[in-house]
Structure formats: C-alpha cells, structure tokens
Amino acid sequence: MCHVEERHIVEFVEEGVLNVVEVRSEWHFTGDALRRARLAVRLERDLELNLAGVALALDLIEELQQLRRELEAKR
Amino acid sequence: MEFKDYYKVMGVARDATEAQIKQAYRKLARKYHPDVSKEKDAEARFKEVGEAYEVLKSPEKRAAYDQLGQRRPGEEFRPPPDWGSGFEFSGAGPGNSTYSDFFDSLFGAQARSGRGARGDFHPDRGEDHHAKVLLDLEASLQGGARTFTLRMPEIDDEGRLVSKDRTLNVQVPKGILAGQQIRLAGQGARAPGGGTQGDLYIEVDFSPHPLYRVEGRDLSMELPVAPWEAALGATVKTPTPNGTVDLKIPPGSHAGSKLRLRGRGIPATPPGDFYVVLQIALPPANDDEAKAAYAAFAAVLPFNPRASLGV
Predict the structure, then answer these.
(1) Is B213-300 in CATH node 3.10.180.10?
(2) pTM beyond 0.80
(3) Which of chain B's residues have a Cβ under 8 Å away from the Cβ of A30?
(4) Residues B190-206: what's their mean pLDDT?
(5) How far is CA B48 from CA A14, B112, B171, B217, in A?
(6) Cβ separation of B29 and A46 shorter than 8 Å?
(7) Which helix (H) or strand (E) holds B146?
(8) Where are the domains positioned within chain B?
(9) pLDDT tens for residues B155-185?
(10) What is the model's pLDDT at position B96?
C-alpha cells in the first residue's frame, strides 16, 4: 500500500494533485503531500477514479472538510 | 462460519450481468468509502461491499461461489471438500483489506499462493505504518512530549492479522500543522526475513480547542466587547496563544470586526496570524439605573437597525 511508483507521483504532480517546489533540481513536497498522496491512491483504487477525477475529488473533499469545521465552530 | 450472500450485499439479482454488478459496486463504493462517507458504519460496509465485488466481478470466482447455491445469510457453513477444484484464482484483491473468514475459507489458500504478484513487494524492508492522532493545540504551540495509544495491525507468528495496542511517547515538534506527519523511523512493520524495519507515520489533527479555532496556521477567537468599546474604541486585555496582550480596538468597530495580530498564530515557518473577531456583549438591564441608562441611550441616538429590511 505504501509503495507507489515514481511515475505515479509524477502524474499526481502534473495533474496538480500534489504541489512541489523545485530546489536545485530536486522536488520538495509540502507538508500535507503524504496525506494527499495516500488519499489519492485510495480513491483511485477503491472508487476506480481516473486522475482528473481524483484531483477534483481531493479538492472537493478538502472544501467539504473546511466547511464542516466552520459549521462546527458556529454551533 | 457464517455464509455471506454476496448478491444481497451488492443488491443485485443472482443473474445480474457483469455491467450491472460493476454499476452496483460503483454506487456502493461511493456511498460507503470511508474518506467521503457520512454513514455510521461506512468502513465495515465498504469492506463488505469490496469483498462481494471481488468475488462477483471475476467470472471464475463467481462461478465457484454460485456452486455453493443459495443459503440464508448468517447460516452456519463449511465449503464442501471438492469445492473450487477446476477453478483457477489469481491473487487477492485491493490493498490492505482483510477479508472475512468466509472469503478466506473459499479463496484464501489459492489467493495466498498467488500473492506477491502485486508488484510493489519489498521483502527486505518492513512496511510503513500510518496512524492518525488528535493532539491538543498546545502541543503544537509549545512543542513537547505526548503519549498515545495506537491500535496497530500486526502479523503474528501464525501469519494471522491481529490488532495490537501500542503506547508511544512522541516528541511533538513546535509549530506542527494539522495534516502534517511525524515520522518515527523504525517503528513500522518488521521485515519478513529480518531486513530494515519500516517507519511509522503519524498524521496530526487537532482536537477542538475551548478558545481558539484553527484554520491552517492561523488561529481565531471571538472576543466580547462592550458597545461603547466598539463604537468609541478602547484598549482591552485579550488572551492570545502566547499570553495576554493589550489590544487596541479601533473606534467605529462593530460586531464581526476582525482584528489581525500578525505572527501570533501557530509558530510554524512562517508563523500564522491570530485573528480576534469582535462580538458585542450587552450589559444586562436588571436594575433601575441600568434601565434608565438604556432609555437615555435610546432617546439620544435615533437608530433603526432594521432600516435595511424596509420596516
């Protein structure tokens, strides 16, 4: 489950699922990259989503979580 | 063990086509996927649906399963000795899911011999483990040690998957944010055959704080102020994550006014900000003097807060 091929990660970056910063020709990932990558792999595998679908789903899930947090806070 | 009616689990007829089964799976998977589902027993249902699909989507497994005939779900059951002969099964299905005893009794033996063909198998290094914990916000504000008990799956000496409780003492780095990971090297799974142990990744999230709301690296808080403090401006004492400060309230503030204290949020790099959101608190009118003061106030200030509603 943890072993994802490099090519797969590159696809995630190209699709905008993961954000990178290039530092001296090395890719550096943001702190939430691991969580997003694992979620992306689960969505691909379990829901048989294609890459574009995964990217959209991730954004919507994060937006949902954010909205739910805000709603909780206003209770 | 208990018989499982996979057709019933997926809500399809016994003569459903492959297309119908796939469609049923897609809908149920979306409904119960633990990352998106709002259902109470989502994880259990998702596993159940996944197992049913694993059998029904493969013509060989489905044919072998159909051989068992229709039984009442939950009925006590043992596979007949010659069941499954003549069928060839490839390795077991998705990721880390543990199948039920029922599934294992039918497809387990063959599946185990086919395993390892899933590509990313590294026999010289144990698997990484992942866990998620809820931290108090103070752990990130100040950094410090915290103790957790995690329930981790492990393969015991007989090769069965068991859940063991582990207590860990973890140094929480100051400024850590929700969604980030703490990596404990060598605390993951042992490698079969004694290679390097995998790592344990702990994903951090914050439990709700009595005072502050967390949004990324920023914190916010509602601050009650008196009507005159908002209207005329004032300097008031405010609790912040790093101590009490004197906050200057600009004149002409109102309910919902947001005041930003730069750099006083979570001490990440760069540090987040601390937002104070004003809430107007009304002094109670419970004695004659207070009532008189309010009446005088009303008399002097012509004010219709409902003007914009047209009433």
Answers:
(1) no
(2) no
(3) none
(4) 81
(5) 34, 20, 38, 39
(6) yes
(7) strand B144-155
(8) 6-114, 129-206, 213-300
(9) 666 666 677 788 889 999 999 999 898 998 8
(10) 38
